Amino acid sequence: MKVLVAVKRVIDYNVKIRVKADNTGVETANVKMSMNPFDEIAVEEAIRMKEKGQATEIIAFSAGPAQCQETIRTALAMGADRGVLVQTDAELQPLAVAKLMKAVVDKEQPGLVIVGKQAIDDDSNQTGQMLAALLGWSQGTFANKLNIADGSAEVKREVDGGLENIKIKLPAVITTDLRLNEPRYASLPNIMKAKKKPIEVLAPDALGVDIAPRLKTLKVEEPPKRKSGIKVKTVAELVDKLKNEAGVI
Amino acid sequence: MAVLVVAAHDGKTVRSNVANAVTAASQMGPEVHVLVAGSNAGEAAKSAAAIQGVAKVLDAEDAAYANWLAEDVAPLVVKLAPNYSHVVMAADSVGKNLAPRVAALLDVAQVSEAIQVVSPDTFVRPIYAGNAMATVQTADKIKIVTIRPTNFKAAATGGAAPIEQIGGTGAGGLASYVGAELSKSERPELTSAKIVVSGGRGLASGENFKMLEALADKLGAGLGASRAAVDAGYVPNDYQVGQTGKVVAPDLYIAIGISGAIQHLAGMKDSKTIVAINKDEEAPIFQVADYGIVGDLFQIVPELTAAVEKK
């Protein structure tokens, strides 16, 4: 079975982001970009399936500007077989990405799609569920453990009260949570090999998908700052402050 | 047009965050209805009817809704949605799983984790782990919104809304529920606790979390953790506070042995009072703490536990 994984290019998780002075968004010029960490987990899971003989081919999908090829190359260096980039400089929102992915899924016919549960830039947590809906497939969201057997997937999910086990029919969409696996680093030979792996570049129009944003961002602002606090020397002083100054105990 | 709140529940009562969702919903439209979908969810429907500001409760009974599989509940919400201006859910693990499936089936966008309702079509939501706030406007006819419960006051009880029984939509057969491994705890639930005691990598082992339990029990507090502590296996995943875990905003948050990565701060920096206990005086947690103590947590925590009065 083919497995499709989605990889998003986002500002690296170690970067302290800056809001643009004109409040139109977040500064992305000259900022380190990386693969969304949850998507690394998705790629890793697909590679492990291939190593176990459950996946025959891994396709890494991305959508966005030409630089997303670098993100796809990272997935290829980890072990994906080929890439598909839907290239556009337009703003892409989760529903549009889900529609683009659906068009590629219709073409490629994977048996499983694995995506990160959320991207650390817009924090939407939508695309996987939306894709499952558009395809009429089942969804195993916030996966902590994934087991494929007999045309179905057993998914252990991270939920509010702990863990939940569900069994879903394949084909399905899986969204990854943090504990699903620990992604590998690409080795230098694999990085070199990845340069030769093919990446197909498509245009949204060619897929017949309307990617117009549905949400209009009116402004982006800094969050309110907390006023700086104080350091206390002793536990007695802390308890006194909590009782008599903050009034919280 | 009315606003529909989709309520998660345990069969007996709706989750406490439904009362927060009702408050948010009442800022979006003139009338709030609550959907309680379940199998034998009559008691839960009654608890929804008791929330003030609710005009009507829809009780949809179907064996397929027993375990909240998104594949089976989404068609019900999609069927009801055209009668409403908005569909609102709390941004918990049920809402996050279900709402986007509903939105895509309706071909509309979703606003995730709104923290403020500016007007019925305009919302403020955090992005980049809360390091920026985006104000977004949606032009879709049906607006799908998940709200962050800690940013909306819980509506009071004492209401008596009528309950209407509606039919189910059946099971689609795509997914089935196998079981759950839920953490058992007598302590207050993390997201609604007035005080939260949270531990990080500095605890060094799961065994050492017992020390935090003693403090939490004395304060009547919920128990949380940083991602590092969960990844290290000290505590289960549902303890995680942060960008991708739970968001809490208690009156008092005590961060113990937590360095304060931005991903953790995203889940707790709206707390009223923050206390940090850490041996590294440069730890970023001190930048958001109202009160900090630099020192060895293994000495400070037992001392603190002894010094506070039992609640």
Please give a quick description of this structure.
The complex is a heterodimer of chains A (249) and B (311). With 249 residues, chain A is α/β, with parallel strands linked by helices.
Offer a few descriptive terms:
heterodimer; A: 249 residues; alpha/beta; nine-stranded mixed sheet; two-stranded antiparallel sheet; 6 helices; globular; B: 311 residues; seven-stranded parallel sheet; five-stranded parallel sheet; 25% helix
Structure in words:
The complex is a heterodimer of chains A (249) and B (311). In chain A, strand 4, helix 2 and strand 5 form a beta-alpha-beta unit. Chain A contains six helices and 13 strands. Chain A is 27% helix and 31% strand. In chain A, helix 2 packs across helix 5 and helix 3 crosses helix 4. The longest helix of chain A has 15 residues. In chain B, the strands form three sheets. In chain B, strands 5-9-4-1-2-3-10 form a seven-stranded parallel sheet, sandwiched between helices. Chain B has a five-stranded parallel sheet with strand order 13-12-14-15-16. In chain B, helix 5 links the parallel strand 12 and strand 13. Chain B contains nine helices and 16 strands. Chain B is globular and about 60 Å long. Chain B has 311 residues and is α/β, with parallel strands linked by helices.
